[in-house]
Amino acid sequence: MLSKSKITRGLQCQKSLWLYKNQPELRYISDQQQAIFDSGANVGLLAQHKFPNGADATKGHNWPNFQCADNTRNLISSGQQIIYEATFVFNKVLVAVDILVRNEDGCWDAYEVKSTNGVKKPHIVDTAIQYFVMTGCGIKLRSVSIMHFNKEYVRMGPLDINNLFVATEITEEVLVWQEQMPHIVQDLEAIQSQSKCPEVEIGNQCSEPYGCDFRNHCWKAICLTSAISALI
Ligand code: SF4
Q: What is the 23 CA–ligand 1 centroid distance (Å)?
């Protein structure tokens, strides 16, 4: 089984994906990284106020799972107009979309919330994975957008959520990824299930686009070698 975060991890480094599945105890998450995750979750909750009165498909669960996917199906068939953390499973990939909004004609707009001032390249990949899974589940998507901070917003008095966030549509960019998505999923599923850890040299991928949480493990050998070289 893959998820959006596992696919983005695997696209950054196959070794990282394998370690995450097979040796997760080697991960190290600094307090700073944890604070970034926590702040991202809080921003996601704040952005829900831009589309009020939605139903949370993950209510009662710590993270999206198969039960949340069942909840999402039930919410859609019961006519719910706005769904938070809408969860879908297709082709052995599970994703949760921050905000899903139904239109008058029955198709949907999806919003992925990011705590940035604009759209970044990794956001396109994130959303392309979600698009692949959602459309695979039969959801008719009209648009997909990144909801990010409005850099023009200046707070004057109480927080104005409608002005704090702005949505940038990225449907066309996301469509470009769709043809290759089944191959990406198939390859990464095979990599995480293989018995041997892929051999990957350390490099730029250890910090771009995201800091890898296996750096302590992979870089340890390099640091040790450098220390020994310095002694001889
Ligand atoms: S530290 Fe670098 S080489 Fe090691 S798993 Fe992470 S990205 Fe891959």
A: 13
